[in-house]
Specification:
Blueprint (H helix, E strand, L loop, with lengths): L1 E5 L3 H13 L4 E5 L12 H5 L14 H8 L2 E3 L2 E7 L4 E6 L4 E6 L2 E4 L3 E3 L13 E2 L4 H13 L4 E5 L3 H12 L3 E6 L10 H13 L3 E4 L3 E5 L6 E4 L4 E3 L2 E4 L3 E3 L30 E3 L6 E2 L6 E2 L4 H15 L13 E5 L2 E7 L2 H6 L4 E9 L9 E9 L5 E8 L3 H13 L4 H4 L16 H14 L3 E2 L1 H9 L5 E4 L3 H6 L5 E3 L5 H4 L9 E4 L4 H12 L5 E4 L2 H9 L2
Parallel strand pairs: 1-2, 1-7, 2-3, 7-18, 9-16, 10-11, 10-16, 11-12, 26-30, 27-28, 27-29, 29-30
Antiparallel strand pairs: 4-5, 5-6, 8-17, 13-14, 14-15, 19-20, 21-22, 22-25, 23-24, 24-25
Helix pairs in contact: 1-7
Family: Belongs to the class-III pyridine nucleotide-disulfide oxidoreductase family.
Protein name: NADPH-dependent 2,4-dienoyl-CoA reductase/sulfur reductase-like enzyme
GO molecular function: oxidoreductase activity
Length: 550
């Protein structure tokens, strides 16, 4: 059996390695259009920022290593121009020799990845100082340009993963950074009331933000010097980083019977098989599906690419592995903050037909007497079944392990109340007695059953519409005087039993404290003495004022 793989980064090399582990007799050939293989795309910003000393550290293996270890033939600088599945042949162009040839196959794997989007006006002209951060060639070009030019002001277009990571790393080099983002928030992958924390961090670090705006004009011939935005902002730019997203590289499927899915990526089944026999697709070029909804999704991540590659290599050589979907879990560091997310957002849950219940949980990552700092957790569950649907976390520490626990729970269809049952490790340097994950499950289940929450957004909408509602601040009088929720009355928790007589039991009531713990006690008290409808303000006064900063 002859296995031909087009592409040799995360997915392609994973196919080859797994196929060889399963089958010593197969002939395995890989064609790569670029010079480098099996490199770390995710590590590129950290080399450009100086955290990684040498670019060679991002390229741990070369073609010779694969040949010696696995007896796999990898041909770099070989561009595949066309595929002919019915004839079981591909057309290859040797870039170094300037010659072309045809190669036959028994099994063909498309691991062609994705390509970066070049929005207008950057799709019109080629500029020496405008870069993507997608390939090793891009990274080397940026590094060379910064070393040989006077770069002081950098404009980053887009605030997704690459945009934020490049902003952080180039700031570490002492450069002045401006971000232009088409959306009205930073990092559009998460909910707006969570992205406000990232915006504050960027501003704290001296980054200039231009949200809900776009570049419409680039002045300069060979190099961009001034960028003009739709809102009339003029940005002096010595270098521009385009980070507005990627699209699946499906060009080889044109004029074939290979079907594309709803997302525009190649449609595959659980074994990475395309609609054409003996042709597979893996990594960024392939469509996946969401583990919660079962619907097609596109999550071009290195972790997903490695899984897909392993599954395809296993299936081709008689194995039983299959793809079970993705949650789109992601994480990024932004200066002193970490942001992580998994599963569905509230909006996505609604679109998928769920009735979402949302909670905000603000808790320290470990004991505060040992320096634990607060994380903000936004979690979503299905109101009817209690099924955990998604979570987002922003905080200075402890985000990574919590988002992984949430992702694990969602993967195994856990209910919110089952989070309480997880036996997580506890010691004061590492967690709190009720870990933030456990506490989130408790609050979600309470909110789903008989102790509802109201988000700051919902409360403000109700107040602005003139709906009759009473808001009670159960913190101390001093805390109330410092700042409080709009139109709230102060009845500190120790006096609530007596002070409740001042309230109307028939009017919907919202209680709040700083972050939500004391207000839960207040909610139970009011319900037990006959109040008809009592809500806890999700995330308390702290989260309310976070939301007001949006």
């Amino acid at each position: 059996m002859k296995i031909v793989i087009i592409g040799s980064v995360a997915a392609g090399t994973s196919v080859a390695a797994k196929a060889r582990r399963n089958d010593e007799t197969a002939e395995i050939v890989v064609f790569e259009a670029a010079e480098d293989i099996s490199y770390s795309v995710c590590g590129m910003p950290y080399f450009l920022g100086g955290e990684v000393e040498s670019v060679d550290e991002l390229i741990p293996r070369d073609a010779e290593w694969f040949k010696k270890r696995f007896d796999i033939d990898i041909y770099t600088n070989h561009h595949v121009k066309a595929i002919h599945p019915s004839a079981k042949e591909i057309e290859v162009y040797n870039k170094e020799e300037g010659t072309g040839f045809r190669e036959s196959f028994d099994k063909l794997i498309l691991a062609t990845g994705s390509y970066s989007i070049s929005p207008a006006p950057f799709n019109i002209n080629t500029y020496d100082n405008v870069f993507h951060v997608k390939s090793m060639e891009d990274t080397k070009a940026i590094d060379y340009y910064m070393k040989n030019n006077d770069v002081r002001n950098v404009t980053v277009i887009g605030s997704g993963f690459i945009g934020l990571e490049m902003t952080e790393q180039l700031s570490h080099r002492g450069l002045s950074i401006s971000i232009v983002e088409l959306a009205d928030q930073v990092f559009p992958k998460i909910d707006k009331d969570m992205s406000v924390h990232l915006r504050k961090e960027l501003l704290k670090q001296g980054v200039d933000l231009y949200l809900n705006d776009k570049v419409i004009e680039a002045d300069g011939e060979q190099k961009v010097s001034i960028l003009k935005t739709e809102k009339g902002v003029q940005l002096q730019s010595d270098m521009v980083v385009l980070a507005v997203g990627v699209r699946p590289n499906t060009f080889l499927t044109v004029d074939t019977d290979i079907e594309l899915g709803q997302t525009g990526a190649v449609k595959v089944n659980e074994f990475m098989e395309t609609s054409v026999k003996d042709v597979f697709a893996v990594g960024d070029v392939a469509e996946s599906f969401h583990r919660v909804t079962g619907k097609p999704s596109y999550h071009p991540l290195g972790s997903t690419a490695n899984k897909m590659g392993r599954i395809a290599g296993d299936h081709i050589t008689g194995g039983k592995l299959s793809f079970t979907g993705t949650l789109g879990t992601g994480i990024a560091r932004l200066f002193d903050l970490t942001v992580g997310y998994t599963g569905l957002s509230e909006t996505e849950a609604e679109a998928a037909g769920f009735d979402p219940v949302v909670v905000h949980n603000i808790k320290p990552s470990h004991a505060q007497y040992l320096g634990g700092q607060n994380m903000v957790i936004r979690a979503v569950a299905d109101r009817e079944t209690g099924r955990l649907l998604g979570a987002q976390i922003v905080g200075p520490e402890g985000v990574d392990k919590r988002i992984d626990v949430f992702a694990t729970a969602i993967t195994f269809n856990a209910d919110a109340e089952e989070l309480f049952e997880i036996d997580l490790a506890y010691a004061p340097p590492f967690s709190t007695t009720k870990d933030p994950v456990i506490y989130t499950g408790m609050v979600l289940e309470n909110a789903r059953e008989r102790l509802p929450l109201m988000t700051p957004e919902e409360l403000i909408i109700k107040q602005n519409s003139g709906e009759k509602i009473q808001v009670v601040d159960v913190r101390s009088s001093k805390q109330y005087e410092k700042n409080h929720v709009n139109n709230a009355v102060s009845i500190p928790m120790p006096t609530l039993r007596k002070g409740a007589g001042e309230l109307d039991k028939s009017v919907p009531t919202v209680v709040y404290c700083n972050k939500g713990v004391t207000s839960n006690t207040a909610q139970n008290l009011l319900l037990n003495i006959g109040f008809k409808e009592v809500y806890v303000l999700s995330g308390g006064n702290t989260n309310f004022h976070y939301y007001k900063e949006i």
